[in-house]
Amino acid sequence: MIRVNVKGIAYDISGNPIILLTDVEEERVLPIWVGLLEAHAIAVALGHVAVPRPLTHDLLKSTCEALGARISQVVITDLKESTFYAEVHLALPQQGVVLDARPSDAVALALRAAAPVFLADKLNDQMLFLKDLFDEETRAELEKLFKTDLMQEYKKSLH
How does pLDDT run across 18-48, given as a tens digit for each residue? Predict the structure, then answer.
């Protein structure tokens, strides 16, 4: 499995939210399109925003804790017909439980529980190399125009 970091939420040209998952070296990114409500739940967790009442993901985390379960990890497991699949792994005193989940919900839970997020090895080819987002000529022109290292600036924007 490949450990990934949740670097943030981006939006495509149509305004649809995308979760950005990067490898530990921040050389590759896996974009996963999500719904607006799920993007909000992830943004709240990423920004450590205090909400007056628990959101659904907060409720599920609290329920797990009250039952003696700990969210141990989240795994993005598969891609079928342009849809990603995920699992939430719960650690219980006597056993472990694996729950089927949408990646957006799994990530929102992982962020709240400070649990690691992994990508199944078979999805390695779905990750995009950041350096390939622009061809060399375009990158050189943009770097000259902005007098900056475009990749360094892009990496900084993910933090």
Answer: 998 989 988 888 999 999 999 999 998 988 8
Same domain, 74 and 109: yes
Q: Are residues 40 and 116 in the same domain?
A: yes
Pairing of strands 96-101, 117-119: unpaired
**According to the 3-state scheme, what is the secondary structure of 18-53?**
EEEEEECCCCEEEEEECCHHHHHHHHHHHCCCCCCC
- Between the CA atoms of 79, 84, 90 and 94, what dihedral angle is there, to the nearest 10 degrees? -30
Spatial separation of the C-alpha atoms in residues 142 and 99, rounded to whole Å: 45
Residue 68's closest CA among 95, 33, 47, 39?
Answer: 95
